[in-house]
Amino acid sequence: MTITILTVDDEPDVRRLIEVKLKKAGFDVITAADGEEGVEKAKAENPDLILMDVMMPKMDGFTAVEKIKKEIDPAPLVMMLTAKGTEDDVMQGLVGGADDYITKPFAPRELIARVKVVLIKAGRKADLPE
Asked: In the chain, what is the straight-line distance between the N-terminal and C-terminal CA atoms, in Å?
C-alpha cells in the first residue's frame, strides 16, 4: 500500500522541494497552499500523513491541525514543518495534535527520516517504500 502525504505550505518553492524529495523517497504527494485548502484536501483525500506549515494566509497551521484532528476520523498523522520554532510554538503544535514538529530550515534527509519514524511509530512500517 502506498503512503500518501499532504504537504500544506504557502511557499511554492518549499512545497515543490518537499514534493520532489518525498516522491523520490517513494511516497505519493498531494499539496495545498494554505490552511483552509489543507483542511479541505485532508477531508477529500484522506492522506496518511500531513506536513503542515504554521504561518499561512486564510488559516494558520495550528488552527488547521485542530480542525483536522476534530473533524476527520480516523485523524491522519500530522507533522508541523515551520519556521516558528520557539518552545511555546512547539508545545502549541504538539498539544494541538501534531505527532512531530520540525523547524525550517530543514535537511531533506532529516525530513524523510522523521516522516518514516512517525509512520513506524503509528504501525505503518510494512507500508513504507523500499
From this structure: 12
Alpha carbon distance 17, 58 (integer Å): 23
* Contact (CB, 8 A) for 50 and 5: yes
Supply 59's cell numbers.
Answer: 488559516
Residues 4-40: tens digit of each pLDDT: 999 999 999 999 999 999 999 999 999 999 999 999 9
Number of Cβ atoms within 10 Å of the Cβ of 17: 16
Q: Let me know: does 59 contact 37? Beta carbons within 8 Å.
A: no
Question: Quick one: DSSP state of residue 100?
Answer: E
pLDDT in tens, 49-101: 999 999 999 999 999 999 999 999 999 999 999 998 899 999 999 999 999 99
pLDDT for 44 = 96
What is the residue-averaged pLDDT of the chain? Answer: 95
Q: Do residues 69 and 33 make contact, with C-beta atoms less than 8 angstroms apart?
A: no
- The Cα–Cα gap between 80 and 94 comes to 9
